[in-house]
Amino acid sequence: MTRQLLRCLIVCLLLVAAGAVASGQIKPGRDANQPVDEEYTQKIRAYTTEPFFNSPLTDYLPASPNVPTPKAVLGDVAGAPGKLPYAEEVYRYMRLLEKATPRVKVYTIGTTEEGREMIAVAVASEQLLAHLDENRARLTKLADPRMINLNDDEADKLVAASFPIYYITGTIHSTETGSPTALMELAYRLAVDDSAYVKSIRESVVTLITPVVEVDGRNRMVDIYNWHLAHPGENVPPLIYWGHYVAHDNNRDAIGLSLKLTRNVLNTYTGWKAQVLHDLHESVPYLYDNTIGDGPYNAWVDPILTDEWQIIGWNNVSELTKFGMPGVFAHGDFDTWSPGYLMFIAATHNGISRLYETFGNAGADTLERTTSPGEYQRTWYRQNPPLPKTKWSQRNNNNYQQTALLTSLHYFGNNSKLFLKNFYLKSKRSILKPKNEGPAAYVFPSDDPRPGNQAELLRTLQAQGVEIHRTTAPFTVNTKSEPAAGRSPNVVVSTGPAPTPSPSPTPAATQSSGTRTFPAGSYIVRMDQPYSRTADALLDYQYWSPNDPQTEIYDDTAWTMGELANLQVFRITDKKVLDAPANRVNGDVRTAGNIIGSGSTYLVNHNADNALVTLRFRLKDATVAAAEEPFEAAGQKFNRGSFIIRKASADEIQRAAADLGIQVYAVAEAPAVQTHALKPARVAMMHTWINTQDEGWWRIAFDQFQVPYAYISTQDVAREENLKAKYDVVVFAPAARDAALIVNGLPMYGNPLPWKTTSLTPNLGKIDSTDDMRPGLGWTGLMNLQKFVQQGGVLITVDDTAGFAVNYGFTPGVSIARANRLKAVGDILRMRTVDAMSPIAYGYADSLAMYCANGPIFNISNVAVGGGGRRRNTERFTGRGGPNDPDIVQGRPPAEVPESPKAETWEAMPLTDEQRRYSGGMVIPAAERPRVILRYADMKDLFVSGLLDGGDEIAEHAAVIDVPSGRGHVVLFSTNPMWRGQTKGSYFLVFNAILNFDNLNAGRKLDDK
Ligand SMILES: [Zn+2]
Question: Phi, psi at residue 72, to the nearest 5°?
Fold first, then answer.
């Protein structure tokens, strides 16, 4: 209640402020002197299901003697029923516009994973478009005020001379299909309409449009829609692949930048020095302007921005309300915490992020739509809610999208000087960060054990536009911890949220206080640069209070990139760090790799740098062995798991070392250490036909580090009796579906659901194909998988697929406890290494931060059937004496109580004599018992970043388990080691399991307790 009152108050104040800056006296609506395209206008009206689902801005289309309307390509009006254009058709139209009018220019901004083009279309008056270059030069100075020495007077002159760039992106989510036609028509209107309202937009703002963000997915969605038109009344195949890799998570990539669409939009946004990035979605009736969103807000953005959200968002709602359009609102249930959304590129780069959810029908059919009570009920922020039931058309959706965008553009154009000045102020305040809120810099020490992963993370920051410096001499700064005020008791002070400097691998080392000297060659991310907020937001720690009033958490609560990369990253508030002798790094940060020494045996230290897996698969003909113990050679210390390479040419090694940035030591004689072979495993990645969203992040990881794999489905496994003949490892990444659905598949009602390339659906198939998506793994598939493991295969399972493996009996001795209070919502938790001798742990230290999303709580037992792992009640019962005294039975001599068995939470209880005697056949032979590799840390060390509540339920439990089964193994992850391109520090747990597939028992100590 308090929260809502406060919000109302803020809104009222901001509306007053908004009123003060708004000058929009121009009446929205057509220019009476400009003819309308009568036929087009008629159709707009015919396809709009109620007059109040339209506005004076879009209920007509102005005619032009020489500029073609969208009909030229669509054969009908934008939003017409039955027509969804492919990306190429949208582009063809934009290029027709470019040819027909000097007010439109089309730019290629890159390609997709599957090689399709992405474009951006600039629309403005010929006057503005003729001066884009000079304007960009001015905007560049406003974006980087260091170029004008932070001089406000100079900035005012630049602002006065400049015009802003408003960047709109459509259909990132492929099932949300309306934006491309809305944006085609919007481009036409902006170029052609002579009404005072639209004219004022094109003369004051450059509207930049990427009509299709997810091009690969768009074309598949159009295929699906066309299939639906050709098969009336049939069930439609679901859009299993949106983009090449992931589905809706393409809108969670602004942190890791793994997808081309993210990089292309980012580069366009920063390259144009745009002020706004406005992303269009369609999942809420009828228009939810979630620009304002809900709390908690991201803690790293400038408050100037959060005020802009309010000002623009409420103006938008207010204008559409005046048009009488129902169901337009702001706030709602989107919290604005994570910087992973595409639009957030603007928020973290001194611009304004915006997002609309409109109402789409996932296609171009006109449908009777029923909204839920939560959607149609009036609330304080939605005084004119959507209707409970109405006929809804794609044209309605296009009317809402265009009307809202036009009012936004109009408002933005009218107030362009205010927003340009704000753009300058936000950029300037980013540069002043060390002097104001801090920190001064982040430091990546040159003696980090994982230079390859370090360079990788620094390159991601560079791709964000962040400048990196490298020191030329050692420097000393104060790294003293600041008071840990306000931290929750479950936060360990040594590793908790900033401002404590936080080297990841060894929490104990973070307790350093006083000063610290960093060696020469260390990297510094200075906070006195325009994009300091991006770096700060990505490298800092997150803290989401378990008592936060926001209980509908929208997405991950943590993303601390240094932790997830298993790197040492120091947050430094001491401004002296800015005086460290250092040079700006030109070009990408890379590690140097070469061969040191001579000899025909090559040694590579295993430090869990991801490039090592690339090296192994690249040297596919070489003989590579893993050392089972640490050793010293060539004057260097080598970790357990280090590579010993023979039968490889020096040239080949040299090239690989240089390309991959790996340090190789050549020696005459191999060290005397126990080894086993690292053979290039034959890997299969198994997917379901129900969901490929999360496994897509695994494919990205494998592709990036060039781990070859066969991409197979559960249906292939159901057909393949002898999997072991083809594969050594089957990876079953998270399927986001329960175990029964994995086995059963979709119900077999109705018609088959094909996913294949045909002339009607030229973009389906390709990644994988099937005649019918419905059948699942089935019982034969289960048997084939079990046989695969029995015959020596390795099955890697994660989170829900680990649950699948446990529930279907792949892993005797492992059970999963029900979580009651645990809330680990996309957070980062600390793991401890239990068995450093296991090949899965090679290259890792004692401690590792991992991504966790309420993963399964594993218990371990030495008995095949029946739980185990629960701490037995050793508290004494009621009787004589004190709490630690034995009870005494009266009338007989005291009996000696045998010591009760004890085990750690992540261990199995030792077997009792009774168990040995009476559950004979159930006792798992020592060699086949689950081997715990990593466990969740103790409660006091568990929390690293994000939201953790009820952590005691999972603290100390096993997190990564290797379960021997027959001649093979099942590897279980409770955490997710491959997530959103952010968790590169835990990738190697998976790579280790693959590289050591036929020697996972190495280093195993058997205990028959
Ligand atoms: Zn969406």
Answer: -55, -30
Above 50 in pLDDT, residue 499?
no
Distance, CA of 877 to CA of 885 (rounded, Å): 10
CA–CA separation, 202 vs 178, rounded Å?
23
Between the alpha carbon of residue 289 and those of residues 314, 357, 381, 389, the distances in Å are 9, 6, 11, 21
Q: Tens digit of pLDDT for each residue in 267-300?
A: 999 999 999 999 999 999 999 999 999 999 999 9
Q: Distance, CA 658 to ligand 1 centroid (Å)? A: 42
- Residue 654 Cα to ligand 1 midpoint, Å, equals 47
CA of 317 to the centre of ligand 1 (A): 20
N-term to C-term CA, the chain:
57
111 CA distance to ligand 1 middle (Å): 21
Using DSSP, state whether 808 is helix, strand or coil.
coil
Answer whether 785's CB lies under 8 Å from 766's CB. Answer: no
pLDDT of residue 490: 31
Q: Give the global pTM.
A: 0.94
Q: Separation of 282 CA from ligand 1 center, angstroms?
A: 6
Residue bearing tokens 């994660």 = 798
Q: Could you tell me the distance, in angstroms and rounded to a whole number, from the CA of residue 244 to the centre of ligand 1?
A: 17
Pairing of β 931-936 and β 827-833: antiparallel
Ligand 1: centre distance to CA 249 (Å)? 9
CA 248 to ligand 1 centroid distance, Å:
7
Task: Note the pLDDT tens digit of each residue in 333-362.
Answer: 899 999 999 999 999 999 999 999 999 999
Nearest to residue 133, comparing CAs of 122, 146, 117, 149?
122
Cα(335) to ligand 1 centroid in Å equals 15
What's the gap in Å between 178 CA and the centre of ligand 1? 11
Q: What is the DSSP-derived secondary structure letter of residue 745?
A: B
Q: Provide the CB-side half-sphere exposure for 298 (13 A, CA).
A: 32
Q: Residue 823 to residues 336, 340, 553, 950, 953: CA-CA distances in angstroms?
A: 19, 21, 11, 6, 10
Burial 481-519 (b: 16+ CB within 10 A, else e): beeeeeeeebbbebbbbbbbbbbbbebeebebeeebebe
Query: Cα of 568 to ligand 1 centre, how many Å?
Result: 35
Q: pLDDT grade, residue 12 (50/70/90)?
A: very low
Mean predicted lDDT score pLDDT of the chain: 93
Q: Which protein residues have a CB closer than 5 Å to ligand 1 (ion)?
A: 173, 176, 281
The rounded Å distance from CA 363 to ligand 1 centre is: 14
Could you report the per-residue pLDDT of 61-74, keeping only the tens digit for each? 999 999 999 999 99
Q: How far is the CA of 142 from the centre of ligand 1 (A)?
A: 32
Closest CA to 302 of 497, 460, 136, 530: 530
- What six digits make up the tokens of 274? 């745009």
Q: What is the pLDDT of residues 803-818, one digit of tens each?
A: 999 999 999 999 999 9
Å from CA of 336 to ligand 1 middle:
15
Total count of residues recorded for the chain: 1009
Q: Does the pLDDT of residue 489 top 60, yes or no?
A: no
> Quick count: other Cβ atoms within 10 Å of Cβ 912?
13
Spacing, Cα 284 to ligand 1 middle (Å)? 9
C-alpha 360 – ligand 1 centre gap (Å)? 10
Distance from the CA of 589 to the center of ligand 1, in angstroms?
34
Instruction: Find the 375 Cα to ligand 1 centroid distance in Å.
Output: 17
Q: Which residue in the block uniquely carries the two structure tokens 């009036």?
A: 378
Q: From residue 85, give the alpha-carbon distance in Å to each of 79, 169, 211, 217, 405.
A: 10, 16, 11, 13, 21
Identify which of 584, 558, 577, 623 has the alpha carbon closest to the alpha carbon of residue 476. 577
Which has the closest alpha carbon to 471: 585, 587, 586, 572?
Answer: 585
| CA of 359 relative to ligand 1 center, distance in Å | 11
Please give the pLDDT value at position 912. 84
Ligand 1 center–CA 171 separation, angstroms: 8
